[in-house]
Amino acid sequence: MKDTFKTKRDIKEIIVHCTATAADKDIGVADIDRYHRSLGWRGCGYHWVVRLDGTVEAGRPEGDDGAHCTGHNHISIGVAYCGGIDGRGAPADTRTAEQRTALRRLLGDIIARYPGAKICGHRDFAAKACPCFDATTEYADLCER
Ligand SMILES: [Zn+2]
After folding, report:
1. Beta strands 56-58 and 48-50, pairing class
2. Which domains does the chain show, CATH number per domain?
3. What's the confidence (pLDDT) of residue 69?
């Protein structure tokens, strides 16, 4: 899924999340959309979601501000992989091999459209474990220095 759309929003950050769901639970945009609407939001707060098998689903249009990181929604694109909670209910990097591959490719595609943006994790901006790995370091090679 290669997207060539480029929003007029001034994108400075691509923020990586987990869905904070159990590692073996495969959820997608439709599920997240239902959940986020139940919170009174305008549907799925992420722009992209990577399912357990590496399938990339489009959530909120990139032209619209997301609802995923307080104070950063207007200058960012939100990307979430499905998972983030291990069998004991603790935060963990539960990414499948397929998700790792798909996430890296997706982030590469996005940053090609927003050169100069930084790839970060939700935890860089909030007291949370999300996305349960160091996204800034892992994807530093995709960003301009
Ligand atoms: Zn998050």
Report:
1. antiparallel
2. 13-140 (3.40.80.10)
3. 97
pLDDT tens, residue by residue, 71-100: 999 999 999 999 999 999 999 999 999 999
CA-angle at 120, arms to 133 and 52, nearest 5°: 50
**pTM score, two decimals?**
0.95
- Choosing from 18, 36, 44, 46, the catalytic residue is 46
**The pLDDT of residue 42 is above 70:** yes
DSSP string of the chain, one letter each residue: -------SS---EEEEEE--EETT----HHHHHHHHHHTTSSS-S-SEEE-TTS-EEE-S-TTS--SSSTTTGGGEEEEEES-EE-TTS-B-----HHHHHHHHHHHHHHHHHSTT-EEEEGGGTSSS-TTSS-HHHHTGGGS--
- 122 as an active site residue: the answer is yes
Distance 17 CA to ligand 1 centre (A): 4
pLDDT of amino acid 2: 60
The verdict on whether 2 is a catalytic residue reads: no
| Mean pLDDT, residues 16-41 taken together | 96
Q: Annotated catalytic, 130?
A: yes
